[in-house]
Amino acid sequence: MTNTAADSIGSRIAAARKAKGFTQQDLAGKVGVSFQAVSKWETEQTLPDVALLTRIADTLGMTLDELVAGRPPAPGDAEAAMPEPRAYWKQVLGVVTEDIHGDVGSVLGQVHADIYGNVLGNVVGYVRNIHGNVEGNVLGVVQGDIDGYVAGQLLGVIEGRVKLGVRGSKPRSTDQLGAVSGCCDAEMPL
């Protein structure tokens, strides 16, 4: 069975994106792709990667059934369609020894555990792993991995990998910090 233009993943993405008031660039930034990729999904030139479907659905406030098949949530699933509000910590100034489940404004202190969320500002201190994106710069040390991307500059050290790459520029001089000891799954601009 072929999708019609009115009943396709691309049309559902476009409708939900517009209903949320997002531009293609907004959605692309939240999902971790280029705005051109979003445009190609919406015009049915390509389909989103399977690994991104959950992130797209969550960002647009949809269930996977709504996104992929166009089926509304079952009456008992209305709560499941609404994502839980995320916890938010404005700044980490001291030492944290437990995992943080939620978003953090900036890390100025030390997190000797993992952050399960996004860092919306800068990482100036120390973090073990970040299971999300860093929307600002990495000026300090990330001992392990960053599962998302770094939107700003890398002026500190990431000892693991950055799954979706560093979007900002890296320092060009060897006199400056700015190293990823592991690898990056996405190309990092120089």
List keywords for this structure.
434 Repressor (Amino-terminal Domain), disordered C terminus, two-stranded parallel sheet, alpha/beta, 9 strands, 190 residues, 2 domains, seven-stranded parallel β-sheet, single chain
Could you explain the architecture of this structure?
This protein is α/β, with parallel strands linked by helices and 190 residues long. It folds into 2 domains: 9-81, lambda repressor-like DNA-binding domains (434 Repressor (Amino-terminal Domain)); 87-190, no CATH class. The chain has 6 helices and 9 strands. The chain has helices at residues 9-20, 24-31, 35-42, 53-60, 64-69, 78-81, and strands spanning 88-92, 95-96, 100-101, 103-107, 110-116, 126-130, 141-142, 157-158, 179-180. Strands 2, 3, 5, 6, 7, 8 and 9 form a 7-stranded parallel β-sheet that branches. It has a two-stranded parallel sheet with strand order 1-4. The chain is elongated. The termini are far apart. Mean pLDDT is 82; it is low at 172-177 and 186-190.
Quick structural summary:
The protein is built from six helices and nine strands; from the N terminus they run ααααααβββββββββ.
Mean residue pLDDT: 82
Number of helical elements: 6
List the domain count as a whole number: 2
Computed over alpha carbons, the radius of gyration is 18 Å
User: Ranges with pLDDT <50 over ≥5 residues?
Assistant: 172-177, 186-190
Structural class category: alpha/beta
**What is the N-to-C order of secondary-structure elements (H for helix, E for strand)?**
HHHHHHEEEEEEEEE
Shape: elongated
- Give the distance, in angstroms, between the N- and C-terminal Cα atoms: 45 Å
Helix percent reads 10-25%
| Strand residues, percent | 15-25%
How many strands appear in the DSSP assignment? 9
Summarize the main sheet.
7 strands, parallel
